[in-house]
Design a protein that fits this description.
Layout lengths: L1 E3 L2 E4 L3 E4 L3 E2 L5 E2 L7 E4 L4 E2 L4 E2 L10 E4 L6 E3 L16 E3 L2 H6 L3 E2 L5 H15 L6 H11 L12 H6 L5 E4 L2 E6 L2 E6 L2 E6 L1 H4 L5 E2 L3 H8 L20
Parallel strand pairs: 1-10, 9-12
Antiparallel strand pairs: 2-3, 4-5, 6-9, 6-11, 7-8, 13-14, 13-17, 14-15, 15-16
Amino acid sequence: MRLCDNKMRLSGKVAMPLQNRVDPFGDIHAVPDRGLFTGNRGIIHDPATKTLLKKRWSTKAWIICECEFQGRRREVMGAHNNPRGGVGWTELFFLDEVTALAAGHRPCFYCRRAAAADFIARFGEAFGISDPKAPELDSRLHAERLAPGGKDWHVSWDVFKKLPDGVMVFQGERPFAKRKGKLRAWTFWGWGDAWHFFDLAAHDLWLITPPATVAALKAGYKPVWHPSIDRPLTRSRA
C-alpha cells in the first residue's frame, strides 16, 4: 500500500494539507507532515470534497497501519479505496506508534500482523485473558479513549514511577511521553525537550494513553518511536 496525494488542490496551484493528522489526544488536524504510520477509524470523510464528516469514528476498531504494504496504491480520502468498490476507510496519520497508541489506536491484524498479535497477547497477559479477541480489546479501548470521552486519570509521582516507556501524559494542552525516566515533549514533527517529572509537577499531570494500552506496554509491548526521540537534545531539563 502506497499513499498518494495528501493535499486538497484549489484554484489549480494552491495546495492545502488534508485534515488527517492525529495528535495524542485523538483529535484530527490539517498539517503537512504525515509521520511514520497511517491508520483508520472507519469511513469518516466525504470523498467528493476530501473533508471530514462531523463524526470522528464509525467503528470501535481504531487501527494503526503501515504506510506502504505489498505495493498497493491508495488515494488519500479517495472514493474507490475498497477493492469491492466504494470508500474503504479514511486514512489518518500519526507521528509514530507511541502517538497512535496514546490516541487509542492499536496495531492492524492485516498489514501489521506480528505487532497486532504481540499487542493483544500482552493485553491478555496483563488482564489474565487466555485467548483475547480483537473486538474485546476494541470495546475496552473505546471506553478508555479520551476522544470519545474517556476518564482523565491523575498521574502522581508514585504512579509515574511505575509507568512503562511509551506512555503519554499531558499538562494543560501539552503532551509528553515517558522515555528513560524523563518526559519528552511531543510535536507533530517530532520529539522535543526532555523534562523531569518535578519540572512539570507544579501543575497536575494526566494520563492520555488508555489504561488497557498502558497495561500492554507494561507487559512488554515495544512501540515504534519516531527517530527524533534519539536526536541530541539542544535543551534538557534535569
